[in-house]
Amino acid sequence: DPKAPISVDPFQTVAKELKFLTGNIRQLLGSGHPTLDTVAKYYTQSEGKYVRPTLVLLMSRATALTPKMSRESSPLSVNRPITSPSVLSDENPSAPDAEYPSVSSFANDAAYRTEDSEILPSQRRLAEITELIHTSSLLHDDVIDHSVSRRSAPSANIEFGNKMAVLAGDFLLGRASVALARLRDPEVTELLASVIANLVEGEFMQLKNTASDERNPVWTENALTYYLQKTYLKSASLISKSCRAAAILGGSSQDVVEASYQYGKNIGLAFQLVDDMLDYTISGEELGKPAGADLELGLATAPLLFAWKDNKSLGKLVGRKFSEAGDVQKARDIVSSSSGLEQTRALAQEYVDKAIESIAFFPDSDAKDGLIEMCTKVMKRRK
Ligand code: FPP
Ligand code: MG
Ligand code: MG
What ranges does the record give for the region Disordered, renumbered to this chain (predicted)? Predict the structure, then answer.
């Protein structure tokens, strides 16, 4: 019955793979320098939501049942075993756990055994790489945002200072890049490398409130277009391209690869729209990170942009980035009495509907139900 309610817990569907994720990531982050080792592994101690790796694992499983690209037409060297020795073991002889397992050996590792699982070792590794890139961006983001908490604990910049937080973020990117290179798939490498550039581009777009950065900007649709482009770059790029990479590693046909990307792009945009809404509606305690931070940072996100459309007096506050005394409170009041939060939710709902629509042609499976359920979870989440 296609109308039967979905009862699957998406995190449960890939629980077996997720169980090893943090341990494997910690292994990728081993350093002979004890302080670097500690700072690099810091965010692996607190429980993240694992949204991105969960999506990669679910997509891997859901696409395993779809048509494959024919071997001859595939330009990719999917899952080719690697025989060369680990570079990291030479680089870092003093690190007890810096030894990087090669693809051929990690396939035999208990943590990567694939029996009764359609998820390939390379796709599990992709899930880890995706979480590493995400965590790296958080280390940098908390410095840029002067944030004091993350995952209900002091943020790394508070615990270790800006310099070490930034360097640890760079170290995560380095190790993520090594793991990526080891997948021996040039298209996947290119995709994830472009994500790193996109994250920086998104963050740069955010440094300016509007495309023109005028003193007293007038509201136009461009403000929303600019915001959505920024949102794609800073949030949806990682999710969409890692979903695409999962399908590529599985040898999926071109239309399946494209559908995986569209799913990721749309749920990614919805995810950040909800994030920007929660910044207005949920307490910092519940979020596990500072709430109401965006206006304080001078940022006009979706709820404010929608409110501005109906209340043109917000223009001058946007122009001066809510920097004068009382600006933040005034903006907050205008947003609460507007339909900005509702409109943000409605737009996020449109995106998750599109995400579900894009994978509608996948054969029915628990993993596909999980991908659909993730859309509901994104809309219902409070942290
Ligand atoms: C969180 O947004 C931040 C991001 C989604 C991306 C941040 C990207 C950079 C800092 C660019 C540099 C990244 C790398 C990998 C070199 P937010 O501040 O709106 O969310 P928050 O409330 O969780 O802090
Ligand atoms: Mg932040
Ligand atoms: Mg930020």
Answer: 68-100
